[in-house]
Protein backbone atom coordinates (compact mmCIF):
# COMPACT_ATOMS: atom_id res chain seq x y z
CA UNK A 1 0.00 0.00 0.00
CA UNK A 2 1.15 3.51 -0.65
CA UNK A 3 0.85 6.07 2.11
CA UNK A 4 -1.57 8.57 0.60
CA UNK A 5 -4.68 7.62 2.65
CA UNK A 6 -4.66 8.57 6.33
CA UNK A 7 -7.10 5.80 7.33
CA UNK A 8 -4.59 3.14 6.17
CA UNK A 9 -1.98 4.30 8.70
CA UNK A 10 -2.22 3.65 12.43
CA UNK A 11 0.17 4.14 15.31
CA UNK A 12 2.65 1.29 15.41
CA UNK A 13 2.52 0.61 11.66
CA UNK A 14 5.89 -0.17 10.08
CA UNK A 15 6.38 2.23 7.18
CA UNK A 16 8.95 3.53 4.73
CA UNK A 17 9.11 7.33 4.64
CA UNK A 18 11.03 9.89 2.64
CA UNK A 19 12.37 12.69 4.82
CA UNK A 20 12.60 16.30 3.60
CA UNK A 21 16.40 16.09 3.25
CA UNK A 22 16.03 12.95 1.08
CA UNK A 23 13.31 14.18 -1.29
CA UNK A 24 15.72 14.73 -4.19
CA UNK A 25 17.34 11.30 -3.90
CA UNK A 26 14.24 9.39 -2.82
CA UNK A 27 16.10 7.54 -0.05
CA UNK A 28 13.59 5.76 2.19
CA UNK A 29 13.83 5.45 5.97
CA UNK A 30 12.04 2.60 7.74
CA UNK A 31 10.42 2.90 11.13
CA UNK A 32 7.29 2.61 13.25
CA UNK A 33 4.68 5.37 13.34
CA UNK A 34 4.52 7.30 16.60
CA UNK A 35 2.27 10.20 15.50
CA UNK A 36 0.26 11.04 12.37
CA UNK A 37 0.86 14.71 11.55
CA UNK A 38 -1.28 15.22 8.41
CA UNK A 39 -4.84 16.22 9.35
CA UNK A 40 -6.50 15.71 5.96
CA UNK A 41 -7.91 12.30 4.96
CA UNK A 42 -5.49 11.94 2.05
CA UNK A 43 -2.42 13.63 0.59
CA UNK A 44 -1.02 13.12 -2.91
CA UNK A 45 2.64 13.11 -1.77
CA UNK A 46 2.04 10.90 1.28
CA UNK A 47 0.76 11.31 4.82
CA UNK A 48 3.29 13.04 7.08
CA UNK A 49 4.21 11.06 10.20
CA UNK A 50 6.65 11.14 13.11
CA UNK A 51 8.50 7.87 13.62
CA UNK A 52 9.35 6.42 17.05
CA UNK A 53 12.94 7.54 16.35
CA UNK A 54 11.70 11.16 16.17
CA UNK A 55 12.28 11.52 12.42
CA UNK A 56 9.52 13.14 10.34
CA UNK A 57 8.69 12.21 6.77
CA UNK A 58 5.98 11.37 4.25
CA UNK A 59 4.84 7.76 4.00
CA UNK A 60 5.72 6.16 0.67
CA UNK A 61 4.92 2.56 1.61
CA UNK A 62 3.12 0.77 4.43
CA UNK A 63 5.14 -2.32 5.28
CA UNK A 64 2.96 -3.80 8.05
CA UNK A 65 -0.12 -2.79 9.98
CA UNK A 66 0.32 -1.74 13.59
CA UNK A 67 -1.91 -1.78 16.62
CA UNK A 68 -4.61 0.86 16.77
CA UNK A 69 -3.92 2.65 20.03
From TrEMBL:
Q: Which domain of life is it from?
A: Bacteria
Query: Pfam families from the entry?
Result: DUF2196
InterPro entries cross-referenced by the UniProt entry: DUF2196
PANTHER family (alphabetical): YWBE PROTEIN
Indicate what this protein is called per its UniProt record: YwbE family protein
Amino acid sequence: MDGTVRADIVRGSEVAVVMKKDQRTGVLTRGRVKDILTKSSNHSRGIKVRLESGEVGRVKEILSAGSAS
